[in-house]
Amino acid sequence: MILKGVGGFYSVLLDKGSLSKDKLPKDNAPVIYTCKARGIHRKEGGSIPLPGDRVTFKILDEQKRIGHIDRIRDRVNAFTRPAVANIDQLAIVLAVTNPQPDMMLVDKLLITCQAKDIRPLIIINKTDLDTGNQVEALRKVYEKTGFTVLSLTKFSCEAYDILHKELVGFTTAFAGQSGVGKSTILNIVLNNWLMETGDVSERIQRGKHTTRHVQLFQLDQGGFILDTPGFSAYTVTEVHHEDLQSYYPEFTDAAGLCRFKGCSHISEPDCGVKILYDEGQINEGRYLRYTELYKELKEAYDNRYRR
Ligand SMILES: Nc1nc2c(ncn2[C@@H]2O[C@H](COP(=O)(O)OP(=O)(O)OP(=O)(O)O)[C@@H](O)[C@H]2O)c(=O)[nH]1
Ligand SMILES: [Mg+2]
Ligand SMILES: [Zn+2]
Fold first, then answer.
1. Could you write out the DSSP letters of every residue in 166-219?
2. Average pLDDT for residues 213-219, to the nearest whole number?
3. Long-range pairs for 57-61 at CB < 8 Å and ≥24 separation?
4. 3-class DSSP state for residue 225?
5. Whose CA is nearest to atom 3 of ligand 1?
6. What is the CATH code of the structural domain delimited by 239-302?
């Protein structure tokens, strides 16, 4: 698995399961090879290797742990900003305050997750700044969606233990507005559960705030995490407005009660979603942002041939 790629050099974590018993290293430490990938993009008609890619590689120098990547395995998904492949969980971080939550961004990231087959993990951070019932109100927004919601603060070890359990076994990218606490969370998790590689330079680098290169960190009980300076919700533009509702799990049951097949739940009469919304069963903000996004996508679709 590629952990990072800088200047054409890729750090590839060896899957020890691929070695015969006599070749297994004696200790438990992860084995990382530095690899180039020259020629591979063209030859395979494929793409440039990304962090998160599963690859096969040839060992060129066992002592120096140098290799050459021959092949990128099929990807489950891939992103350009950040450039990373095979994410299976997206931690969507929002703060109680500082900054004020951008709920539309959260909704869009939730859509991205579903479109890319990624488990969303909603993290309500900075719960120490709650002055009343802000955390509760934020939880309520997603209560009918079925998505996992965690509350977190850098002042609570218990909350971090719960977060860690949700990270084990997944490759998790952290996304969310600037200032919500992504790097803080990542650093706390790494300070407690980093799989040690003995690479001192890496430990120093990650202290820096700016996230220039995408880098996956392995956790000691399994799983990988990565920081992102901003995760674009670009797939939303690829969603057809008529399909948008399928990304709102809390609409599904009510949608069966609509009078019209293919009801958009915007202005049709006898709309099941609208009825539930009027009864307060569907979160107001979620519904209103749905209509806003629907109109945006429809307009883009209607104007698709216009320049
Ligand atoms: N009160 C409080 N502050 C927090 C908490 N977590 C992080 N912060 C603070 O929030 C500020 C921003 O945190 P960062 O971790 O840099 O935020 P980020 O999401 O990585 O921001 P970008 O890198 O700009 O996207 C820092 O001053 C943190 O100390 C928390 O649980 N409670
Ligand atoms: Mg950061
Ligand atoms: Zn409807």
1. HHTTSEEEEE-STTSSHHHHHHHHHHHHB-----HHHHHHTTSS---S---EEB
2. 92
3. 57/12, 57/33, 59/33
4. strand
5. 126
6. 1.10.40.50
Q: Please report the atom of ligand 1 found closest to the CA of residue 210.
A: 23
Average pLDDT for 112-127: 96
Distance between Cα 140 and ligand 2 center (Å)? 27
The residues placing their C-beta within 5 Å of ligand 3, an ion, are 258, 263, 265, 271, 273
Q: Within 10 A of 144 (CB to CB), how many other CB atoms are there?
A: 17
Domain ranges in the chain? 2-75, 79-226, 239-302
Measured from the CB, is residue 94 less than 6 Å from ligand 1?
A: no
Pick among 3.40.50.300, 3.10.20.30, 3.40.225.10, 2.40.50.140: CATH of 2-75: 2.40.50.140
pLDDT of residue 41: 67
Whether residue 256 is predicted with pLDDT greater than 60 in this model: the reply is yes
Residue 132 CA to its chain's centroid (Å): 29
Ligand 1 atom 9: the closest Cα is on which residue? 181
Confidence band of 85 (pLDDT split at 50, 70, 90): very high
Q: How far is the CA of 221 from the centre of ligand 2 (A)?
A: 24
23-32, 135-144, 213-222 — most confident range? 135-144
Res. 74 pLDDT band, cuts 50 70 90: very high
For residue 268, give both structure tokens.
Answer: 């049709």
What ligand has the least distance to the C-alpha of 256? 3
pLDDT (mean) for 145-155: 98
Indicate whether 45 pLDDT > 60: no
The amino acid that residue 196 corresponds to is: E
Establish whether residue 126 lines the binding site of ligand 1, counting it when its CB lies within 6 angstroms of any ligand atom.
yes
